[in-house]
């Protein structure tokens, strides 16, 4: 790729195919590959992906078979809320030590499960294999079968050894685990006007907002998989008329399994921004083909949008012309972010994701303005340099991207699972506008700008020294 941006930014040779500037060359971007050696990828591991999907199931036991360090990845950095049980907020680990690595950890896992299930009596138990378990070869499946037979509590292995791939592979491991529950419950009494919500994890209560919209339309939500999830709901979710998949990267596999086995159709949805939120509701109403549901949907959207738009005008006035960068876990979310930023008068100059596919990036490219940099599986140095060169005023990302923004003196908006503010739905769009406005217009960045040159000179010096070594 030969263009002005690329020639001013040092890029590892193996990374060049993963970067595209709209308008510079015909669209062609590499993706869905292992991270390039030498590139400090922002991606998470397989274990991380499996935990993102499964742990919001609030009445299940979640046990990490591995070293204690992996247990730090738990509810407190993934803000999924529950309307009832709080078992998902407790992090249990077998805490494997050196002796266990040598002699095996199966006995330790068995004893831990016996004690935990006796004490908590969960609806089900998920057992996560970590890197070390994959290396020493513990037969986690055998232990799970034994515990299920002895306790009557379905105990499900999650093959989430971190080294096996990336976060996206963890999604697959989680879907395989969930598939063992689906179809084991009674579907009597489920309305023909019913759906499952897949791929929303109730961050800051977002699932409740979305579920309320559908219920106001006259649609029954059979199961939320997995935000504020319940084991018994997941067991009977195969009785729903439609699967609505929010985070396509995390839950499409489960929806596909259900389509193949039970014939349940799939539609994709995004609940972020006015356009996508409205479309998500109308798509369900159109599929169910019920006049009352459609009328309720029209009234709901009209009422919510008419309340929201006047409130957004005051924020748009200050934000018009500002430049934003978006880097998310899945590319589908980035599409909604670009639309939401346009609603606020802002331009997206960088858009990327950890796990996007060719179709996702093609849609990103179509939606983006000329000159937008599209990134697949970027690293901190790349991202920082493009932020500087594109003169971004805001970075939207997750916990790993936050320090990059702050070091550069940029506004930052957390749109990942760590956040404590609900950004989905119509009310979420207002929260998004408030947060973006508050950080972009903060006077603190004027002070930070004074130190940018020092930061960049130090970064460039370290990079040159690394090349020389």
From TrEMBL:
One of its GO terms (molecular function) is nitrogenase activity. Residues 45-440 form the Nitrogenase/oxidoreductase component domain. GO terms for biological process: protein-containing complex assembly. InterPro entries: Nase/OxRdtase_comp1 (IPR000510), Nase_comp1_CS (IPR000318), NifE (IPR005973), NifE-like (IPR049939). The keyword Oxidoreductase applies. Keywords: Nitrogen fixation, Oxidoreductase. PROSITE patterns: NITROGENASE_1_1, NITROGENASE_1_2. Pathway: Cofactor biosynthesis; Fe-Mo cofactor biosynthesis. The keyword Acyltransferase does not apply. Transmembrane segments: none annotated. Belongs to the NifD/NifK/NifE/NifN family. This protein may play a role in the biosynthesis of the prosthetic group of nitrogenase (FeMo cofactor). This is Nitrogenase iron-molybdenum cofactor biosynthesis protein NifE.
């Amino acid at each position: 790729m030969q263009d002005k941006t690329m020639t001013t930014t040092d890029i590892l040779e193996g990374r060049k195919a993963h970067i595209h500037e709209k308008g510079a060359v015909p669209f062609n971007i590499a993706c869905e590959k292992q991270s390039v050696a030498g590139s400090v990828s922002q991606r998470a591991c397989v274990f991380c992906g499996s935990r993102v999907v499964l742990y919001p199931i609030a009445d299940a036991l979640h046990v990490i078979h591995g070293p204690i360090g992996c247990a730090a990845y738990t509810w407190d950095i993934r803000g999924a809320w529950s309307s009832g049980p709080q078992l998902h907020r407790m992090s249990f680990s077998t805490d494997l030590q050196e002796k266990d690595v040598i002699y095996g950890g199966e006995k330790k896992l068995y004893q831990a499960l016996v004690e935990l299930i006796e004490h908590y009596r969960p609806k089900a138990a998920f057992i996560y294999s970590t890197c070390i378990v994959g290396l020493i070869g513990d037969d986690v499946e055998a232990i799970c079968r034994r515990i299920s037979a002895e306790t009557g509590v379905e105990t499900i292995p999650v093959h989430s050894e971190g080294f096996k791939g990336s976060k996206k592979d963890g999604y697959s491991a989680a879907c395989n685990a969930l598939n063992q529950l689906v179809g084991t419950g009674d579907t009597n009494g489920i309305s023909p006007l019913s759906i499952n919500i897949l791929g929303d994890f109730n961050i800051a209560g977002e699932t409740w907002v979305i579920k309320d919209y559908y219920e106001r339309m006259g649609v029954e939500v059979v199961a939320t998989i997995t935000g504020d999830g319940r084991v018994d709901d997941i067991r009977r979710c195969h009785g729903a008329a439609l699967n609505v998949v929010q985070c396509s990267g995390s839950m499409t596999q489960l929806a596909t399994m259900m389509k193949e086995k039970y014939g349940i159709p799939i539609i994709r949805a995004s609940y972020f921004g006015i356009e996508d939120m409205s479309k998500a509701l109308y798509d369900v109403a159109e599929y169910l083909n019920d006049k009352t549901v459609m009328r309720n949907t029209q009234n709901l959207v009209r009422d919510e949008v008419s309340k929201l738009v006047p409130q957004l005008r005051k924020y748009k006035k200050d934000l018009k012309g500002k430049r934003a960068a978006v880097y998310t876990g899945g590319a589908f979310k980035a599409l909604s972010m670009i639309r939401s930023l346009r609603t606020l008068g802002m331009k997206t100059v960088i858009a990327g994701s950890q796990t996007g596919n060719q179709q996702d990036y093609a849609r990103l490219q179509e939606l983006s303005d000329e000159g937008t940099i599209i990134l697949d599986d970027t690293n901190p140095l790349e991202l920082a340099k493009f932020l500087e060169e594109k003169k971004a005023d805001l970075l939207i990302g997750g916990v790993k991207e936050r320090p990059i923004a702050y070091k550069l003196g940029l506004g930052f908006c957390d749109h990942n699972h760590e956040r404590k503010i609900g950004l989905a739905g119509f009310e979420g769009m207002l929260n998004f506008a408030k947060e973006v406005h508050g950080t972009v217009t903060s006077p603190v960045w004027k002070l930070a700008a004074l130190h940018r040159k020092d930061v960049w000179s130090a970064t460039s010096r370290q990079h040159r020294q690394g090349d020389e070594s």
